[in-house]
Amino acid sequence: MHWADIAAIVSIIGGVLTAVGFVFKTAIKGSLYPVSSRMDSLIDSLDRLNKTFDKQEIRIDAIDGRLDDHDRILAHHDEKLTNLSKEVFKHNA
What we know:
Blueprint: H1 3-92
C-alpha cells in the first residue's frame, strides 16, 4: 500500500466521521429543542412568579405597617376610655 492510498483512506474515514457527527449533532439538537423550549418557558414562568412574590411581600409589609398603626391608635383609645371611666366613676361615687 502506498502513502497515497493511506491518505485517501484516512480522508474518506475523516469525511465519513464528520458527516456522521453532523447528523448526530443535528438529530440531538432537534430532539432536545422541545425540552429546551419548555425549560425556557418554565424559567420565564418562575421569573414572573418570583416578581409576583416580591410584589406581594411589599404589599404585606405595607399592610403590616398599617395594622401596627391601628394597634397603636386602639391602645391610645383604650387608655383614653380607661381614664374617662376613672373620672366618671370617681365623680359618681
